[in-house]
Recover the amino acids of this structure.
């Protein structure tokens, strides 16, 4: 059972456009929602993360929007660049007994055309 | 801080052979995780250590898999009697709750395993 559902599976955006990736979860115990960026042959790298006490977090061109009641969160990449072309994974974890184990979505392959 | 280090980066082995991967976490990180990732999928949790104690194991971790972290620093993941289905990238990650990084989990570059 997929704990975190991610869409779309692939996304093609023109340079300068906005890329939007969505994730949904069911487990209300989740309290930490990171996004990871992964280039081919590399390990995932933390991009940005949010906790449910805020509805939005912005770091540079990257913004996470969080809707606790809908149990959804999304990544917005503003002014998308060809260098942003990578696979993006949303993830979630809970504190307590799971001690930070991450549950990942299936990933979104982003291609930004120049 | 050199990040999470994994060795080897690539391993090709024949079916039935044993393989071992090593992970050196970020210094002072007391939590160490192993994940497995196959092409087109997100990483899947395998197991987790806090210091030298293995606190959680996924059902994905069959009896052929064993992980250790004997001194609470580096860790090894051994796969015995490898099968073709074991072909994947094995990712190590570490974190340090209590430090400024909080619950942030940092991944290494991964160890690619191909079983032929």
């Amino acid at each position: 059972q997929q704990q975190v559902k991610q869409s779309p599976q692939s996304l093609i955006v023109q340079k300068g456009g906005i890329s939007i990736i969505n994730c949904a979860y069911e487990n209300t115990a989740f309290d930490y929602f990171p996004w990871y960026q992964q280039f081919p042959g590399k390990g995932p790298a933390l991009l940005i993360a949010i906790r449910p006490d805020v509805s939005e977090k912005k770091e540079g061109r990257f913004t996470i929007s969080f809707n606790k009641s809908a149990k959804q969160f999304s990544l917005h990449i503003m002014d998308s660049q060809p260098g942003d072309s990578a696979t993006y994974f949303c993830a979630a974890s809970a504190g307590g007994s799971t001690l930070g184990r991450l549950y990942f979505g299936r990933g979104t392959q982003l291609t930004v055309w120049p | 801080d050199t990040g999470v280090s994994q060795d080897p980066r690539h391993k090709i082995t024949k079916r039935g052979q044993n393989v071992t991967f090593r992970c050196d976490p970020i210094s002072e990180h007391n939590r160490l995780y192993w994940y497995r990732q196959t092409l087109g999928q997100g990483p899947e949790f395998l197991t987790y250590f806090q210091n030298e104690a293995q606190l959680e194991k996924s059902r994905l971790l069959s009896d052929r898999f064993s992980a250790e972290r004997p001194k609470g620093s580096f860790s090894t993941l051994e796969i015995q009697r490898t099968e073709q289905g074991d072909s994947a990238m094995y990712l190590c990650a570490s974190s340090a709750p209590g430090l400024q990084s909080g619950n942030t989990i940092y991944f290494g570059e991964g160890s690619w395993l191909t079983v032929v």
